[in-house]
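Exercise 7. Predict the joint structure of the components listed below.
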Amino acid sequence: MALKELTSREEDYSQWYNNLVVKADLAESSAVRGCMVIKPYGYAIWEKIQRKLDDMFKETGHQNAYFPLFIPKSFLSKEADHVEGFAKECAVVTHYRLKTNPNGTGVVVDPAAKLEEELIVRPTSETIIWNTYKNWINSYRDLPILCNQWANVVRWEMRTRLFLRTAEFLWQEGHTAHATSDEAMEEAKRMLHVYADFVENYMAVPVIKGVKSANERFAGAVETFCIEALMQDGKALQAGTSHFLGQNFAKAFDVKFSDKNNQLDYVWATSWGVSTRLMGALIMAHSDNNGLVLPPNLAPFQVVIVPIYKGEEQLNAINAKVEGLICELKSLGISVKYDNADNKKPGWKFSEYELKGVPVRIAMGQRDMENNTVELMRRDTLEKETVSFDGLAARIKSLLEEMQQNIYKKAFDYRTSVTRTVDTYDEFKVEIEKGGFILAHWDGTTETEEKIKEDTKATIRCIPMDEIHTADGHVIGNEPGKCMVTGRPSARRVVFARAY
Amino acid sequence: MALKELTSREEDYSQWYNNLVVKADLAESSAVRGCMVIKPYGYAIWEKIQRKLDDMFKETGHQNAYFPLFIPKSFLSKEADHVEGFAKECAVVTHYRLKTNPNGTGVVVDPAAKLEEELIVRPTSETIIWNTYKNWINSYRDLPILCNQWANVVRWEMRTRLFLRTAEFLWQEGHTAHATSDEAMEEAKRMLHVYADFVENYMAVPVIKGVKSANERFAGAVETFCIEALMQDGKALQAGTSHFLGQNFAKAFDVKFSDKNNQLDYVWATSWGVSTRLMGALIMAHSDNNGLVLPPNLAPFQVVIVPIYKGEEQLNAINAKVEGLICELKSLGISVKYDNADNKKPGWKFSEYELKGVPVRIAMGQRDMENNTVELMRRDTLEKETVSFDGLAARIKSLLEEMQQNIYKKAFDYRTSVTRTVDTYDEFKVEIEKGGFILAHWDGTTETEEKIKEDTKATIRCIPMDEIHTADGHVIGNEPGKCMVTGRPSARRVVFARAY
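Solution:
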């Protein structure tokens, strides 16, 4: 137990997170600066995320494909904003061979094997993909193209944190091509809604859907849509983005199509992505001082059964009784682990599965055998109760559904409790220190946005698309007002926060 | 049709393959030398391969994880044989930043951003993984570790061909750690059998299981097991390998464990992998001059239905009739595409789906509507027949099973027909020109093996583990003999071929 003890959230939130990621066997740092190892338990959660998102992409008509890891350096320069955003910190391949060190120790780069043009390890794939689409598109009949790829990408971040910001991360990137601006815009919004649906209903994390300010836009996008989540320390986390790219990449890579009237025009584009960063959001949104809290929809296993016994005879009796329950749970689509390993004590197992966020724990001892009961614990509230063995599978099924709702509701209520309006900049400077989402008026200029960021470290998370409920019961929509900093007109309140 | 025409296999096998990969929308070359784009139809087949293999790995107790893309240069040198095999041709990252070219055109590598130690894009991950396992393993209780990763890897090949040999490719690599030599050896063999099972029963490609000669062993392995397949041009293709690594990597990375008696020992290891090369094997083993032939178990869709009609009324009638069939097929687990697009002619669709290897094609025209029939074509034999609409789904289900068997049998019979024994080197030199597998005696030395390779371009594919049937009806097992080159004693015949 001592080995597994976590720093508490109250003591040091950041340390609590780092601790939890490592101790719950989710991920760890590697020998390569800024690159992580995703451990089997963490990867099992990522696989559930992947599988569900992949299904949702396919249901909305997308297909997977795979594009090269490397991007010729010159491609990055073709879209002016894009190069500004992505050429800065990236891994550059300059050589293609090593040779034995002339002094006999190890290997060195072979200077004779220098590439004519350097290759960049993809930080995102718009350029290589649009260079490919050029050959796929001639006429409107070739459109739309609705591709997605699951891939690793590299951005040379200076300050890294497991899952939240790593030099290499895993993600999916959708890249679509359309005949009209409207269709591309519709696609960009559709995928934002898919992301919001997934994050709210599977990750149980409420999000605000919105539009990024020009300053926070993806490099090369005309419009960036995003979903913003709130972590338990009151900091925001961007959970996914979907970009309307206009004709920027089509122009950069000269991708034209002939329409039904045989007129040539540039193709319209979107791109959208979520990454292993979602793992960070999942962990930070729900977990507690005992460890992970996983929403049942994403738990690698939803139920663990721990027998408590003395001697083989008692164990055999429990084994026999539990067998039918396991079958019944599986037939209800519930994943279950029966841990009757004899080299660990029940108490050790209890804290281990709490740490790993297994939603439901069932303990079964001698008295339970006699009374036809089990002890059932739900991870979200840590409540225990003794319940009848009869009808247990059905009871667990509805409990898991209830927990999924409850975990969402808890996060939603917390978010609402720290979401408020602020009307003056003085008040803003005080309030921003307390964390949470602040809805304030802004004059729409990059200058004001940057001043606020410089003064307070707060950024505009988004210009929200929907109404937002605040702690004091107001519903904030499209009401105009005056910028809290400059007093100039503001079309509507926008969402400020400090963010990951 | 003209657009899609393939070079025939007889005319130019190599050109036929390249043509087919591109025209069937499987993959294409990219702007990056040696790197391919895997197109949606090709990727859909790869996803089926992945999904099934992943299930088989999990059924045998393995878990997925993810390790860094980059390997510090010094890691490669830690295992002496390994560095010889893999340091030669690899992508080397030397810098982590680009900057605007001082002359204002594009971007250049920032010389100030040079890495202290170069990073290698993984050609395989033994080194980075064993460096990680060092921290995971203390005692026998931590063993075995049974991890797999799905990843991209890069080997800077000079002569590349789509799927068969590309600079970047996709693969899975299993890396396991064990307390005993026996257990590791058992694991290496288990995974070889998993591969053979998959390749034979899903890809419908018969394989010879065997052991590599010392010369053909994986760099760093004590023993390499392999499965060898035969392509239609008589050349062999290594379809998968599984390595018993002994304690080589544990020693290189100092990974020890304490056993039950508290004695320290180095950990025993295996690694095993298959790659997108399997796509090449799948294509080359079965396809014909009309295009791809896909075994039903791996076809992205197994049935295509094409309506033949004049006017909307006829189409509506066919749509209505087909609807129930589609539901019935889906309920039998059969994937189906109904192509009633009106911008392509039936003839065009027929050749398109032949090219793409869709196992079963159903055409339904006006006469079929009147007679309650359909025209059914099976892709493997190109046989057409008119059959009743009644009981069609069940008929298709058994036809797909029959086709899966038939495609395997055809490949198996072909292989047997070109598998023969040879006893003299003169005869060998004549026979090897004809392609196929040649079973001949070899004295077991690398010198003889290399002489044969130099003289004839033939390599020892493997020392087979099972009996092999030859064209003339013999069954070749463990019979000793004399080396065809040196006359020295040979323990048993080994398998020679020219190979991809």
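Discussion. The longest helix of chain A spans residues 392-417.
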